[in-house]
Design goal:
The chain has 207 residues and is an all-alpha fold. The protein has helices at 2-35, 39-60, 64-73, 78-100, 102-108, 115-138, 143-170, 179-197.
Amino acid sequence: MSVFKKLAGETALYGVSSILARMVNFILVPIHTEVFKNRGDYGVVGQLYAWIALGVVLYTFRMEASYFRYTSNDDKSSSYANAKVFTLITAIAFSIVVLLFSDQIAGWLDIEGYGHLVKYAAGIVALDAICNCLLHGCAFKRPIKFVLIKFVNIVINLLLNVYFLLWRPRHGIADAQDLLVYVFVANLFASVVTLILLSKRVFVRRL
């Protein structure tokens, strides 16, 4: 019975973290639609975030379940360590290519003039892919840590969006042309903090 209780508790924790991640998107939608009166600007945000989501899948090859399996069955296995290295190399290599050709990619996406946002998106994809690998590696034996780190990421992203998009403009200390950039800066900063919290797992094989 204790095994089932543990499984139920951990499933609830993972479920809550996933629900919170989805909720932040619903909260940000009215904020973004209020700030970006120009539909074109909001369309740029939506399009790039759709590509960010796809990019994370491609960078990680959707192997989160594999990270979970290997660390749960054998925390000394080299499989997880190899997966970390592979994800790190893939994320860096692909994002460098995107950074180098950001203007061309923006033209291909029909958002000419937003190459600088493509660069931010490349950084977010790389960091999120690496963090996903590290997070799911610690999920089995440290579910509370898993949830807390995801919660910190969500809160930072949300609060920075509120600060940059609502508070600063109302106090006359923000340039309207920079508001689009702030959306990606907030996400990038949250991802950096998440990676810092997980930094100890970059160079270790065991949990």
